[in-house]
Structures are given as structure tokens and as C-alpha cells.
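Bit of a strange request maybe. I'm writing a small parser for C-alpha cell strings and I need a real example to test against, not something I typed by hand. Could someone generate the C-alpha cells for this chain?
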Amino acid sequence: MTSETTGRDTRHRAPGLAILGVAALLVAGWGFAGGPDLPSAADLGWLAVGLGLVIGLILILTGARSSRR
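Reply from user aminoacidic:
Good idea to test on real output. This should exercise your parser:
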């Protein structure tokens, strides 16, 4: 099957996969560094809320793009 028959562009790169790859490398580096102490649980909760907001905004903004060219 070619991109003409499937209707998909094979040159498209997924930015989400790149972000996950970088995050995985950061976690691996953190593990190699001996796993420094984590911040307090209260700070981690706010970090999770902030991360959720950022991811939500990214999903909204990327979903708002028109698929028509």
C-alpha cells in the first residue's frame, strides 16, 4: 500500500512520540544519577496539576487545527 491508497502522509512525524522519547531519556539519566530525592508530596501534587493543564492545552490547541488544506 502506498500513501496514495491509504490517504496518509508517510512523512508525518508525531511530536508526541518525540516528547515521550525525551522524557524517557530524562528518566533514564535520573536513574543513572542515583535517583535524586523527590520533592515533597504536596509539591508533586501541584506538579501533576500543572502538567495536566499543559497537556490539556496542547491537546486542545492541536485538535483545533483544521485537517483541510
